[in-house]
Amino acid sequence: MRIAVIGDMHLGFDHHGLRKNDSFINAKEAFDIAISEKVDLIVQTGDVFHERLPKPEVISPAIKLFNSLKKLNTPKLVTQVRNKQETLLTQEIPPVVLIYGNHEKRPPGYVNPLHVLHNAGSVHLLEKDSVVIEAGKERIGIHGLSNVSELFAKETVKDWNPKAFPNMKNLFLIHQNFQELLPHQPPETLSYKDLPTNMDYHILGHIHWAQSDKHPSTKAPVVLPGSTVMTEMKRIESKSKKGILILDVKENISSKFIELKKSRILHYEVIEIKNNKPSEITAKIQEDIIKKIEYHTHELIPLLKYSLRGELADGFIPSDVSFRALTKKYKDKAIIKIDKSKLTSKAVGEKAKLISDLKQNKISIESLGVKILAKEMKIKDTAKLNDLFTALSQGDIDIAENLL
User: Fold this and answer.
1) Which of 63, 127, 265, 310 has its CA 20 to 30 A from that of 374?
2) How confident is the model over 170-194, as pLDDT tens digits?
3) Are strands 266-276 and 253-259 parallel, antiparallel or unpaired?
């Protein structure tokens, strides 16, 4: 069996900005690669959409995009395990099996955009399900967990404890943070050792760069296909190409990474500041912009990210450094983002250190909110607490009241 693994697509990203078409251009190329590779199935890692309530102008082309995959053969769902109840089926499903991510998660009782695609017959959604998919004479087990609060992710995986199907390969699909990938996470964040030990292959969503690791005890592959579009312009993404994975599932599982050729090029530069004046910094960045533009050959204008680090000359503070005129001057040649968060001066040095220390020991607003809610309301039912916080954080008061 051949399987395409496609990461977070974020359809609708920058909907009113210069990059409003990027997510669709890249997603279409990813699908075209899957079709050309004659895959039997596509596995997608969540965050198909960038927003929980995407606009009709995003939903409509998304449905059209997924319907283009009808060129692929139709697989069959032959077994489903939900709430520990196994059901035998012979049901044709769309050739895309996926989970929803944090960008799509909504409170219980509310429909999220992937429910819409599932009900329209464009995808097959797994929330906390184990399924056996049949393509031709071959079968594979897929165990998918849609996004849950980071505070309860470890507990959810442990309590679910999905059982591998015998006599076939089993894939585990999840969309969460992991300690090994994002530094300075709170202790409740998942680690690779929390992944099930009975799976042949682990596929991670949520993280936007491609990477391959191994389960610490079983040595089963742990792979990140990465997103198909850059939403944050991180340094690591400038070194990691966008693409999709093609898995060949036989006695062993082999993989190859195929690069997306239409994805914009990201250049990430760190600019060290050593008692420089704002005018000197601007001149240095402008010089680099001109060089990058001169050697750029891709059909789409590049992404340029500059991270300023260090201390300004005496008498200047970070707010004195403005690049509005510079970004406007080259707006037709490059999409420029300049990060001043690590730029300081003697006048604000102590404040900057405090902010940096807070960032180094950060806890997500969601995790902090859930902890406060648990303490104040003395709720020990973690599933109920997670649903209650999600409802409150999204303003769904009626659902919150019903949970009390």
Assistant:
1) 127
2) 999 999 999 999 888 888 899 999 9
3) unpaired
Amino acid identity, residue 33?
I
Q: Are 260 and 180 in contact (CB under 8 A)?
A: no
Half-sphere exposure in the Cβ direction for 325 (13 Å, CA): 6
Give the tokens for residue 176. 């969460």
d(CA 115, CA 121): 10
Residues 49, 73: Cα–Cα separation, whole Å: 25
Q: Which two tokens stand for residue 318?
A: 């970070």
Residue 27: left (phi > 0), alpha (psi -120 to 50), or beta?
alpha
Structure tokens at 200: 């042949």
- Which residue do the tokens 């196994």 mark? 86
φ/ψ of 63, rounded to 5, equals -60, -40
3-state secondary structure 53-99: CCCHHHHHHHHHHHHHHHHCCCCEEEEEEECCEEEEEEEECCCEEEC
Which residues are within 8 A (CB) of 85 and not within 5 positions of it... i.e. 6 or more apart? none
Look up residue 6 and give its amino acid. I
Q: Which of helix, strand or coil describes residue 143?
A: strand
Q: Side chain identity at 264, as an amino acid letter?
A: R
Architecture of domain 2-259: 4-Layer Sandwich (3.60)
Strands 221-224 and 211-214: antiparallel
The alpha helices in 163-309, defined as continuous H runs, are 235-239, 278-294
Mean pLDDT calculated for residue range 234-256 = 95
C-alpha to C-alpha distance for 82 and 105, rounded to whole angstroms: 19
Count the Cβ atoms, other than its own, within 10 Å of residue 237: 22
Beta bridge partners of 246: 4, 256
Radius of gyration over every alpha carbon of the chain, rounded to an integer in angstroms: 23
**pLDDT tens digits, 185-238:** 888 899 999 999 999 999 999 999 999 999 999 999 999 999 999 999 999 999
Distance, in Å, from the CA atom of 109 to the CA atom of 111, rounded to the nearest integer, reads: 7
User: What span, in angstroms and rounded, lies between the C-alpha atoms of 290 and 176?
Assistant: 39
**Choice between 198 and 356, residue whose per-residue pLDDT is larger:** 198
Strands 41-44 and 2-6: parallel
DSSP letter string, 191-211: -GGGS-TT-SEEEEES--S-E
Q: Which residue in this structure is represented by tokens 């965050």?
A: 47
